[in-house]
Amino acid sequence: MLGDTVERREVVIAGGGFAGSVLARALHAQGRDVLLLERGRHPRFALGESSTPLANLALERLAVRYGFEDLWTLAAHGRWRRRLAEVGGGLKRGFCFYSHRPGRAFVPDAAGSGRLVVAASPDDEAADNQWLRSDVDRFLFERARSEGVDCREETAVEVVSPPGELQAGPVRIRAGDRLVEAGLLVDATGGSPLAGRLGARSVRPRLQTTLVYSHFDGVACFDHGDDWPDSPFPERWSAAHHLLEEGWMYQLAFGDGSMSAGVLFPEDRPAAAAAIDELGGGGAGASGAEAVFGGLLARYPSLRRQFAGHRPLREVEARSGVAYRRDRAAGPGWLLLPHSYAFADPMFSTGIAWSLLAVERIADLCRRGLPAPAAVQRYGRLLAAEADHIDRLLVAAYRLMGDFESFTAAAMAYFAAASFDELGQRLLDPPEGRWCWRGFLGADEEVRCRLFAELDERSAAARTARGLPGWIGPAIESRNLIGLDDPSRRNVYPVDLADMARRQDRIAARLGVEVEEVRRRWPRLRSPEYMPG
Q1: Contact 245, 271 (CB under 8 A)
Q2: CA distances from 513 to 478, 487, 506, 508 (A)
Q3: Mean pLDDT of 364-375
Q4: In contact, 71 and 60? CB cutoff 8 Å
């Protein structure tokens, strides 16, 4: 029974995943009174497992700002494996894309047709990671608890009374068997109904997909050794994307030999209709999802061979309505983290980086107390612009999957935008408002907004979509710092620091600084073993 006593807290964070836990620690370090609530109990399964250089940069900034050495360790594969080997994960050297046809084995050719490889790091030491989320989330939650954050598991959150539209907080919630008033409520639950009760209405997203997924053991390497043309790294250690007639499959390998794999079925694609019907719109039981997954493998000889000895480590599940969107990300007395506000697709591994950027922002907003209404509105406007920006890229990529050359143009747009930010954040000093207030992937910058918008428009019409391979090079030219869209590369793009050093003049010009500045700061491209200071 709920009594009359109301517990009053300055900040309540609902959701004890990695983002909620890191935010709770940062706010606690700043002197805020924080309550962190998790509906389940760690360890628990979660998706969103593939990190990127932009995510690692955010981890490093948070580490330095708040003295969180463990975040510095998690930001590079070599450091992680040496100092936190007990936290499960896997090596991620970059992105690989493979175009399959039903009934035909995948065979790469020297011209790069049907295969795209983009490295994200020069070596294993500096590489990104695949996050075994059950381990990472538990580790970060326990770190928050050990540092003095009030952390409660098995505590469901229900909004009892949201604040009025014209006056901020407090938000009254039911947290397990207690009533709690929060000066600021942060929804880090990841798409739960909590946001709706706060007043953020659901909006129908443009992408409509169904996901069939699990973790597996006994999955063989797809790249068949070292005989593939120009591989800059063993391609198993990547975020692997297999483009299929029905949709696409992701594969993320962990260091213990297991793999996270799933298939996204677009609900408007005729080839996916049979699978979605068999799932009953995502409501089928485990046996139905496993049958759909097995039926898909049977259509593609190379995937069938790769998964010949596979064993699910948990039930194969189906989830409909993978993409979602709310009409706003902030209101009086509350904020949504990105994964509670909007999600489109995991195609380019944007989730972890975007979430960590928002963690930085909220911590910055609360550094002197609870944020003013104008600051809350600024946060909401920026998330909305970023969600639209990401959506344009992903909708275009889905439209173009059937023609690999055109799809590659969409990928070039992403990699140009992401690498421009990565190099800028490594080589330049932060702006006065901090890097975290710059729009994700250039969402607040005219050049990249125009790039993604035009990509979206051109991909929608057959005539202009066919011209994308010729259009993309000039379109990304001013943001292309790493030599993308180069025919001589044959769709394989390593991270070659020596080659990049030879193009320092070009990099400096596009970043808007003197080349001497770039040369002086070049060592920043390699993050040191230990956290500075």
Answers
A1: yes
A2: 14, 29, 10, 5
A3: 95
A4: yes
- CA dist., res. 426 & res. 57, Å (int): 8
Amino acid at 257: G
| DSSP single-letter state for residue 487 | G
Q: Tell me, what DSSP letter sits at residue 371? A: P
Query: How far apart (Å, rounded) are the C-alpha atoms in residues 166 and 474?
Result: 47
**Contacts with 81 (C-beta within 8 Å, 6 or more apart), sequence order:** 255
For the segment 486-491, the average pLDDT, to the nearest whole number, is 93
3-state secondary structure of 374: helix
Least confident of 63-77, 259-273, 274-288, 414-428: 274-288
What is the rounded distance in angstroms from the CA atom of residue 331 to the CA atom of residue 308? 50
Distance (Å, rounded) from C-alpha 113 to C-alpha 408? 10
Structure-block tokens of residue 515: 């080349």
Q: What are φ and ψ of residue 174, in 5° steps?
A: -100, 120
Residue with tokens 């930001």: 75
Q: Are 458 and 465 in contact (CB under 8 A)?
A: yes
Token representation of residue 88: 């499960």
Q: Which of 487, 480, 396 is nearest to 116 (CA)?
A: 487
d(CA 7, CA 15): 18
The one-letter code for the residue type at 79 is: R
| pLDDT in the model for residue 113 | 82
Contact of 151 with 24, CB cutoff 8 Å: yes
Among all chains, which residue has been given the structure tokens 């612009």?
Answer: 385
State both tokens at 180. 């709690």
Cα separation, 471 vs 474, whole angstroms: 6
* Distance in angstroms between the alpha carbons of the first and the last residue of the chain: 50
* Enclosing H/E stretch for 263: strand 259-266
Based on its alpha-carbon atoms, the radius of gyration of the chain, rounded to whole angstroms, reads: 23
- Please give the Cα distance from 100 to 104 (Å, whole number): 7
Closest listed residue to residue 196, CA positions, set 337, 366, 341, 356: 341
Residue 61 has pLDDT above 50, yes or no: yes
Give a three-class secondary structure readout of 249-293.
Answer: EEEEECCCCCEEEEEEEECCCHHHHHHHHHHCCCCCCHHHHHHHH
**Angle at which helices 18-29 and 133-146 cross, to 10°:** 20
Give the separation between CA 405 and CA 426, rounded to whole angstroms.
31
What's the rounded Cα separation, in Å, for the pair 265 and 322?
10
CA 115 to chain centre: 22
Q: Which amino acid is at 362?
A: I
170 upstream amide cis, omega within 30 of 0: yes
Q: Taking 90 as the threshold, does the pLDDT of residue 229 lie above it?
A: no
- CA distances 357 to 51, 91, 310, 362, 414, Å, are 13, 22, 36, 9, 18
Q: Hey, what are 10's tokens? A: 């300055």
Of 15, 316, 57, the closest CA to residue 157 belongs to: 15
Q: Which residues pair with 242 in a beta bridge?
A: 98, 249
Task: Look at residue 217 and give its three-state secondary structure.
Answer: strand
Type of residue at 153: E
Q: Residue 24 contacts by C-beta under 8 Å, 6 or more apart in sequence?
A: 13, 34, 36, 144, 149, 151
